[in-house]
Amino acid sequence: MATHVEGRLLRLSIPYVEGWIAELAASHAAPVPAAAAAAAGGKSADAPKGGKAQKGGTSSGDKGDETAMSRCCFAVGKVVEVSPHPDSQKLYVEKIDFGDDMNRALNGDGTSSPRVILSGLQEFVKQEDFLNRLVLVIANLEPRKIAGTPSNGMVLCASIEAGEQRQVVLLDVPEGTAVGERVVFEGHDHPYVPVLKKKLAKNFEEVIAEVGTNEKGEVCWKGIPFRTSAGVIKASLNNAKIS
């Protein structure tokens, strides 16, 4: 009798255990709610795509996922000094401040001094219009001497050529953008390379080939606007090349 009862109890318990295991497996396979994913540092599927601002010298991201865009450091700086090059009628010598943290990250020697950059803009930009202006810079190019003076980056401009006529204008960075902001793009927000040396310079060449203004004058990469915390970077020239 006892054996019969035990057998009956065993047959009844098996379906219960199997059901419990199925429920447990289902709960582990269930998707994590968006709020929980955000709290854990993950990205929601509804996260906005496009250019965005990022403070500081580097960004979050797993190594090995770098792209040509993520290796580039597009940063907002402020022109604190500008003067004509003593040996050139085309070049300006600028000192551009990116804020202490970004200056140190870019200088690589612990100093926070502004970076010296040369630009061939005397023909197109008045000195007084250049001084104290916010500018967009590709800031991690390998330093090179121009007319005997080391230049540590490139101030980006919009340009249009029509025959022998050429127009060049500085980009309009929105007021309120923080000095030192790095502009990054969704999926390309990994740490930038400290210096784009030798073969790495091709990363910037690849990226800049797809940068220009659209019909609204918005500066875009692959059609996606460069966006700071204060808005989209623009230029007064539509459908122009950026360099």
UniProtKB/TrEMBL annotation:
Biased composition (Low complexity): 42-51
Alphabetized UniProt keyword annotations: Aminoacyl-tRNA synthetase, Ligase, RNA-binding, tRNA-binding
Keyword S-adenosyl-L-methionine: no
Domain TRNA-binding: 68-184
Region spans: Disordered: 42-65
Family annotation (InterPro entries): NA-bd_OB-fold, tRNA-bd_dom, Tyrosine-tRNA_ligase_regulator
GO molecular function annotations of the record: aminoacyl-tRNA ligase activity; tRNA binding
SUPFAM superfamilies: Nucleic acid-binding proteins
Keyword Ligase: yes
Residues making up the signal peptide according to the UniProt record: none
Protein name: Glutamyl-Q tRNA(Asp) synthetase
